Amino acid sequence: MTRLNELRLISRVAQMYHIEGRRQAEIAQHLRLSQATVSRMLKRAEAEDIVRTSVIPPVGTYSELESVLREKYHLPEAIVVECTEDRDGAIMARIGEAAAHLLEVTLAPGEIIGVSSWSQTIFKMVENIHPQKSAQAKYVVQTLGGMGDPSVQTHATQLTTRLARLTGAEPKLLPVQGVTTSREAKLLMQADPFVRETMDLFGSITLAIVGIGAVEPSELLARSGNIFSSRELSDLAEAGAVGDISLRFFDKNGKPVKTPLDDRVIGLPLEDLERVDRVIALAGGAKKTDAIAGALRVGVIDMLVTDKFTAQRLID
User: Fold this and answer.
1) pTM for the whole thing?
2) For the chain, the helix, strand and coil percentages under 3-state DSSP, each to the nearest 5
3) Domain containing 167: what range?
4) Residue 123 CB partners (closer than 8 Å, separation 6+)
5) 36 and 120 inside one domain
6) pLDDT at position 241 over 90
7) Spatial separation of the C-alpha atoms in residues 257 and 194, rounded to whole Å
8) Average pLDDT of 67-92?
9) What is d(CA 165, CA 142) in angstroms, rounded to the nearest whole number?
């Protein structure tokens, strides 16, 4: 009976705290207990299974899918967003909205943000961000050459400069092509002091926001001119490549696919991305499923923001 009496009192303390909403000090005074005793009893209530914690995810959230993604890919965090259509445009819009909210609530003062500026999904994120007043970043750094066809180059420049303005940061552009004609051309371009200044910040990036591409480039990247030839892309596929992050390719197991093409890319290498404190990937869509799965196995991504259709494909 002694134990039953003890549990009865613990149950009453738990009821007053969790159901009646009373503070520990108030409970202690009411029951003539010390506050330390009340605190111990509340912990004991959980240990004795008197108090059970239930998390009931709201409609439109997908905690089970997120949990399986984390477990299957050894992924620290995943966000799976609601989407009514399994269509690229709708998927990019929903991922962009969720990523904008995430950045707003997690941005730390003085962050140096690296951004892959040829991504339409990241551009959707930027469109949804509200101006930040409390936590402001230091720099927003382009992590892949932002020059290309003039008809679409404004996309890359606007993405970087607008994100910088919204986060109170200074933009650091990479005013060269993402893909050069030769290794020698790359070395010449990297010698430019403005280019060097931006690339020197790669090692200081604290938050990288990246897209994930399939071997076949997106429409935007193709129009920019920052792509390899059809023959070169075929060679990459034959070498086992399934996708890329900023034109750094990897296979289905997440192993980098190294070819001489790497020597023509001006941008952040995968090994440098590994040293970044927080890497958030925004990606979804049927065409990118294999690429996303490979990217998650690279081991550099800390959080994936994707849609429910893609999440289910990644699990299946």
Assistant:
1) 0.88
2) 50, 15, 35
3) 63-315
4) 96, 155, 159
5) no
6) yes
7) 30
8) 96
9) 14
